[in-house]
């Protein structure tokens, strides 16, 4: 009898272990069950905006981490500051997860920052590089619930310089408000199988030889209807830790093509040497320090009446 009971316990343990393993695999490789149409009550922090009363033309979603206060401050004082360009309203919000280890002091500072600036969007997931996909989906979810009245959405990072004036000009000129997605396009990229790489992807995670076309996660822009479509379809798209590739997988399933915003390159996923004339005709520049963000922005603003001859992309 004792042997029989021991056998039952052993079988039960194996079944339980198998069930837990299946759940882990499903969460890790298959679905974003954290965000499966979870509703707006699950947000920890929300910005103060009423898109129904005053719909923005462009919502800029900036991925950030707790310790990047200096960058957030620089962005708030420059390209991320709410403004009207022409008759188009531009607003910016910061996307944030939670700390892996509980830190009451840091959490209190973020709450205070949120109360002061009212521009932080937060949900309860661990804030790591490989959870950027979750963070980006959170932004899509926020747009879906709170700001579907906007015309365009941009996703970018804190180490970026964004020329919101030129971006707005190009979006108005493009005159596209549905099924539109643009950025620095990677049309033929493949998984990196080198295990020492930051972007290493195993064949279990992605068995294919090539990724579908995707835009660099440093900065891409899309019509708001695309944010809604990605959020809705996301539970059926296998989880992928590289956020920009994951968005490309969603777009591929939705059959939404990537488009150039301009005949010349305007999205730069690398650093560009600053000059006033050059930066008047770019949309994004990467690897920018907080002090450089302010310096570049102030230089552009103080030289608006200066002429540039033969500089920048052709009109």
UniProtKB/TrEMBL annotation:
Major subcellular location class: Golgi
EC number(s) on file: 2.4.1.-
Membrane association type: Single-pass type II membrane protein
UniProt-listed InterPro entries: Glyco_trans_31
Listed pathway(s): Protein modification; protein glycosylation
Gene Ontology molecular function terms on file: N-acetyl-beta-D-glucosaminide beta-(1,3)-galactosyltransferase activity
GO biological process per UniProt: lipid metabolic process; protein O-linked glycosylation
Record keywords: Glycoprotein, Glycosyltransferase, Golgi apparatus, Lipid metabolism, Membrane, Signal-anchor, Transferase, Transmembrane, Transmembrane helix
Assigned GO CC terms: endoplasmic reticulum; Golgi membrane
Transmembrane spans: 6-25
Catalytic activity from the UniProt record: a globoside Gb4Cer (d18:1(4E)) + UDP-alpha-D-galactose = a globoside GalGb4Cer (d18:1(4E)) + UDP + H(+)
Gene3D superfamilies from the UniProt entry: 3.90.550.50
PANTHER family: BETA-1,3-GALACTOSYLTRANSFERASE 5 (PTHR11214:SF265), BETA-1,3-N-ACETYLGLUCOSAMINYLTRANSFERASE (PTHR11214)
Protein family (similarity comment): Belongs to the glycosyltransferase 31 family.
Name of this chain's protein: Hexosyltransferase
Native organism: Microcaecilia unicolor
């Amino acid at each position: 009898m004792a042997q029989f009971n021991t056998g039952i316990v052993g079988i039960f343990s194996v079944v339980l272990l198998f069930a837990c393993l299946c759940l882990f695999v499903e969460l890790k490789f298959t679905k974003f069950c954290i965000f499966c149409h979870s509703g707006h009550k699950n947000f920890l922090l929300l910005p103060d905006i009423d898109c129904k009363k005053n719909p923005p033309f462009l919502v800029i979603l900036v991925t950030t981490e707790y310790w990047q206060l200096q960058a957030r401050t620089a962005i708030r004082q420059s390209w991320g500051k709410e403004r009207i360009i022409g008759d188009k309203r531009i607003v910016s919000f910061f996307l944030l997860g939670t700390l892996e280890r509980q830190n009451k002091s840091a959490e209190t500072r973020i709450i205070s920052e949120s109360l002061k600036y009212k521009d932080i969007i937060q949900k309860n997931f661990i804030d790591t590089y490989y959870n950027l996909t979750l963070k980006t989906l959170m932004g899509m979810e926020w747009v879906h619930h709170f700001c579907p009245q906007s015309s365009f959405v941009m996703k970018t990072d804190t180490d970026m310089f964004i020329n919101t004036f030129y971006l707005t000009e190009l979006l108005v000129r493009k005159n596209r408000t549905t099924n539109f997605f643009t950025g620095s396009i990677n049309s033929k990229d493949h998984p990196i199988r080198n295990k020492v790489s930051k972007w290493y992807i195993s064949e279990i995670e992605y068995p294919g030889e090539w990724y579908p076309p995707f835009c660099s996660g440093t900065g891409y822009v899309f019509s708001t209807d695309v944010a809604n479509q990605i959020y809705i379809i996301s539970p059926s798209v296998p989880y992928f830790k590289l956020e920009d590739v994951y968005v490309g997988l969603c777009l591929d399933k939705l059959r939404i093509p990537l488009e150039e915003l301009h005949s010349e390159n305007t999205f730069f996923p690398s650093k560009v040497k600053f000059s006033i004339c050059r930066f008047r005709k770019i949309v994004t520049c990467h690897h920018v320090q907080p002090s450089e963000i302010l310096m570049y922005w102030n230089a552009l603003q103080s030289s608006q009446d200066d002429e540039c001859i033969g500089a920048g992309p052709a009109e």
